[in-house]
Each structure stands twice: as structure tokens, then as C-alpha cells.
Amino acid sequence: MSRQGTAEKATTTLWRPTGPKELELVRGSGWRAWPARLPQQPFFYPVLNEDYAIRIARDWNVKHDGAGYVTRFAVESAFLARYPVRQAGGETILELWVPAEELEEFNAHLVGPIELVHEFR
Q1: Cα torsion through 40, 115, 46, 8, rounded to 10
Q2: How confident is the model over 14-63, as pLDDT tens digits?
Q3: DSSP designation for 101
Q4: DSSP, res 3
Q5: What single-letter DSSP state applies at residue 72?
Q6: pTM for the complete prediction?
Q7: Whole-angstrom Cα distance, residue 91 to residue 61?
Q8: Which superkingdom is the protein from (predicted)?
């Protein structure tokens, strides 16, 4: 929907599998931002399809954190063009590698809230 003559920006839907600690930080942001990476985390990895996010949350996060979650969020497509799509395995295992130092700018290009869409225990 456009308002007052401004065009709506095109968005891309991304998913992020996450554990309980990161999810609490997202909740604490009002579902509006991803938390800063830890020193040993040089990249933020959103993924391009829901099935891949489900597999990570269900098969990795549950095993390591006791619970796994899948979130969905939209980002301005024009902004995302700076990040090449990386194939991390099979044909549908696609992700973006956002350098940790760019995460604040990445968050500024989120459109709408981060949504919790799946939970695994």
C-alpha cells in the first residue's frame, strides 16, 4: 500500500533459524531488530527458504539449545542486492552472509516486524 504518493518498496522474505537466547533478544527489540553478533560470529546468516530454516531449527538448534525457532521477516530488496546468494549445500540450501559490522544497517532495512513462525522442542 502506498501512502501520500510514496511508492511501496519491494521486499524479499527471509527466514532465520534461531535458538532461545537469540529469540529473547529479538523479542526484547520489539521484534524489530537482530542482535549484534558475538565476537566469534563474523556473519549473520538469514536463509532464503522456509524448509531450510526448519531443518536447521529442528535438527541443530533443538539438539544444541533444547529448542529451535524459525522466524520470517522482510527486507528491502534493493538493499539485499549487495549480498550475493550463497549455496551452502544442496540446491535449496541458500543463504546470505551479512558481515557482523553491517547488521545495524541491515536492521534499518527491515520492513515490518520479525515474526515467529515455527517452534521445535
Answers
A1: -130
A2: 999 999 999 999 999 999 999 999 999 999 999 999 999 999 999 999 99
A3: G
A4: B
A5: E
A6: 0.90
A7: 22
A8: Bacteria
